[in-house]
Input
Amino acid sequence: MGKTMAEKILSKKSNTSAKAGDLVVAQVDLAMGQDGTTPLAIRSFEEMGGKGVFDPDRIILVIDHNAPSPLEMVSRLHDSMRNFSQKYGVKLFDVGCGVCHELMVAQGLVVPGDLVIGADSHTCTYGALGAFSTGVGSTELAAVMIGGKLWFKVPETIKVNLVGQLPPGVFSKDVILHLAGKLGADGATYRSLEFYGPVIDNLEVEERLTISNMAVEVGAKTGLIPPDEKTIAWVKQRSKREFEPVYADSDAHYIDTITLDCSSLSPQIALPHRVDQVSSVEEINQEIPIQEAFLGTCTNGRAKDIEVAARILTGKKIDPRVRLIVAPASREIFMQAVKAGWVEAIVEAGGTFVTPGCGPCVGTHQGVPGDGWNVISTANRNFKGRMGNNQAFIYLGSPATVAASALEGKIADPRKYLEG
Amino acid sequence: MIIQGKTLKYGDNVDTDVIIPARYLTATDPQELAQHCLEGLDSDFPQKVSSSPILVAGRNFGCGSSREHAPLAIKASGVKAVIAASFARIFYRNALNIGLPILESEEAAEKIKEGDQLEIDLDKGEIKNLTTQETFKVEPFPPFLQEIIEQGGLMNLVKKRVVHLS
Output
């Protein structure tokens, strides 16, 4: 019997012939921590008696969740990361560099076939490059920083075939929201996803990242996309590392296969407070006024996302009752947006930009909603209280949906702005 | 190890943002985290937990963020064990690593009611509902994880190995 991508990568990294259900101890290629979870990992590292790291070039720290610091206590935690980075020679991306998951891929750190752990649940994003990547807690990050190894239960895999062609105004975010609605928030718990089909083939790498990013929202350990020519060219442009892409065997065993025809898909909205409570935009028959619109995050803060918003907003004004906040996913994306005129278009329309990083997604700064507010966001989570106020209501959609909604002051269908 | 106590019951998809909102992650002291544990879901939780230290919940408990502060906050608030129909995988690992006992049983999660008196035998993987006299069996942890649990979490296991190596 052949193996899935997850089985193959975990076999290779553990020097075993691993099958779903096995427990293996595997060598990790890269370990990442951000400022919400690393301070606790540093404390664990010290409590464990850590005297050094297994390989400073394979550990990456990023200050993105609370950046720049909104509180003195946060500044102290950030300094603990800076001190750790200096002491052990570990790479640190400081305030303004961007969101950890964008940096891990765009800076050429992750390559296809890697095994990556990160103390952040959206570490699964790198599955879009064909890397087995998954989120862990702080104590596990500390253990990996010391020894470079971690235990994994080899997951069963669900194969997802995305067939057909995406209609204009419908994006990879709509695909993954639709899938979340079908599978449910725990539909792939303890499992890996593998994505195939013409929809995936036609997406650019940065659009595929949106899909893998949200694998954890259906409970999955990772969301793998087999590397194709686009992936390989994209990685080679960014990384000097040599790599060997890993593919599933043709006779691999899948616990389930799901096929979705995306040809008639509409823009999708996840309703508060659940990622799997998903509706197409035309099914929402009541008017939902919005007070905040947020474009950014590890899901949708990339160049194409800002470009489509700028295209919709150019020469127009957003509804004056809406706060539109944009957080580019990295400094490079921000610069690109400046040079291309997207920043000007969005700011002239009434939007505002915050530091490249997580922005208001995680509810610590830069746009905490008020009581009773409705927020339309490009993020991956709409849990109650997620953005810092449990009296607010978060709706999730694509960057185009967010821009169209900011214009109209209510949840809106972006397609009319993108036709022709 | 035997755990006894009354239960508090919650629903499906109790996420880590509601267990401990991100704005409190500035605290690394578990006692401080405990003050805000589950406040978004049940503002009376800190009072209730002292007399009802076993949490019973539905599916996908602990979904969302990887923050280890979530099981730390639950443990420090006085919770002795969490029984759920299923756990999100990062929470599951984190709970084991910090020594918070967790038990996965769909049947137990469904049948146990709030306020029931339970007796949990962690070694045998058995939950006895003393109020209704029902008993639920729980799948034992694989030996590899048993070792982590017996050492009191990954921290202690690594500590031992680091000391052993040096």
About this structure: Chain B has eight helices and seven strands. The longest strand of chain B covers residues 2-9.
